[in-house]
Design a protein that fits this description.
It contains 14 helices and eleven strands. By secondary structure, it is an alpha+beta fold. The chain folds into two domains: about 200 residues, no CATH class; about 180 residues, no CATH class.
Length: about 400
């Protein structure tokens, strides 16, 4: 142990003449502890929300979409499907048709993104069946007369906007018109019976998505045997980018692949920016504690003028004096950071285990405050806390090192 660290430890342990200095030291440790704990808790909660959003987005949509340039559609998709489903990490492939159209029920109307889903394979790619809250995810139903009728599954918010319930009738308008002269062209229309309502918890999906059968979509949108694309699910969604690259190399032009991160790039970028903005803002709490460290060390320098003068007269260098006060400030910072990490971990663990903080499920898509602790957050917060405390020691340590030993002990 160097003499600088030994003396710094003695200064921290010793009972000072001015008890107020000791009080400020404890306040400094407490400030660092609270700042570090607040940072860890906020980052963990934001990680939890991000995980919830990511899980629901990926559960509603495929990990990878295979489409074509200019939305030409995929003809004879069975051969493309067989090539893709044999790739490593691919656990499910399902064809789909996608169109934006208008739905109406009585006097109510709303724009919707209609997806034609293959009932045999859609469950391998999405969690649609798990998200059904009313009815069944079926695309055919029978009327009272026993006739088969096309079914439609709506997002719960979209159903509320249309004011429809199970077994109610919904009319879809196709952007493709009937053939005829320009004066007589009018949109194609088709009636559907509501067979199910789903809820993902994400407003964008619940307010705009509607599912019909793949066959109905192909007929209604006059696509023949063509599909809009293939949805692909992987055993690890974080491999989506590398697998998408392999699919592009395998299929070539005119096929186009997009993974779930590209499809929701804006949302996840916004969440990342928000997370680091909160990190910077809450670091101000540690900065306030750092000012306490500066004031504490300055008062210690004034109190220990004689001791500093004696040390310098005995051969201690200015660099050594600087180290004494830098060590003292760092010890305060390290203790506060360690206690803050422990407090933050304890509170996050308690929330994750006992669910103390509840959220109104009718407003948010989850019932409890989510928490996800990551080792990298603890590391970054600890480094930031210690770095801020270290910078706070520089001015008092520099001032102590410049003290003239003759002036310090002349009147002692």
């Amino acid at each position: 142990m160097s003499y600088e660290f030994f003396i710094a430890k003695r200064y921290l342990k010793s009972k000072r003449k001015t008890g107020f200095i000791s009080l400020i030291t404890y306040i400094s440790i407490g400030g660092v502890m609270v700042g570090v704990a607040a940072l860890i808790i906020v980052l963990s909660v934001m990680n939890g929300f991000e995980q919830e959003v990511r899980t629901r987005i990926v559960g509603t949509d495929a990990h990878i979409r295979v489409t074509t340039f200019y939305n030409r559609g995929i003809d004879q998709y069975e051969s493309v499907l067989s090539q893709v489903e044999h790739l490593d990490h691919v656990v499910g492939v399902s064809p789909f048709v996608y169109w934006e159209t208008m739905l109406s029920a009585g006097q109510n109307a709303a724009g919707a993104r209609v997806i034609g889903a293959d009932s045999a394979t859609v469950s391998r790619v999405t969690d649609l069946e798990k998200n059904i809250i009313h009815g069944q995810p079926t695309y055919t139903t029978k009327t009272e007369e026993g006739k088969k009728q096309s079914g439609i599954v709506l997002g719960v918010t979209l159903a509320n906007r249309l004011k429809v319930w199970l077994d109610d009738e919904v009319v879809a308008l196709s952007p493709k018109t009937y053939d005829g002269s320009a004066l007589l062209d009018f949109p194609r229309a088709k009636k559907f019976i509501v067979t199910g309502l789903f809820e993902t918890g994400l407003y964008e999906y619940d307010a705009s998505l509607a599912y019909i059968s793949l066959e109905d979509a192909q007929k209604f949108f006059q696509m023949g045997d063509t599909i809009s694309g293939l949805g692909i699910k992987l055993d690890d969604m974080y491999r989506a980018k590398s697998v998408a690259r392999k699919i592009t190399e395998l299929l070539g032009y005119p096929y186009l692949t997009t993974d779930w991160m590209e499809q929701n790039k804006t949302l996840f970028n916004w969440m990342t920016i928000e997370k680091w903005a909160m990190f910077i803002i809450l670091s101000l709490i540690i900065l306030v504690a750092a000012f306490n460290i500066i004031s504490t060390l300055i008062m210690i320098v004034l109190e220990k003028r004689k001791e500093i003068g004696i040390l310098k007269s005995m051969g201690a260098t200015s660099k050594g004096i600087m180290k004494i006060f830098m060590f003292e400030g760092l010890v305060v910072g390290v203790i506060g950071t360690v206690l803050g990490c422990f407090l933050g971990y304890l509170l996050c663990w308690a929330q994750d285990t006992f669910r103390f903080f509840q959220l109104p499920a009718e407003i948010y898509f989850i019932s409890t405050l989510p928490v996800l602790m990551q080792p990298s957050d603890f590391l970054f917060v600890s480094l930031a806390g210690i770095a801020i405390c270290f910078v706070a020691t520089l001015y008092p340590a520099k001032r102590a090192s410049r003290l003239d030993p003759v002036e310090a002990i002349r009147y002692e």
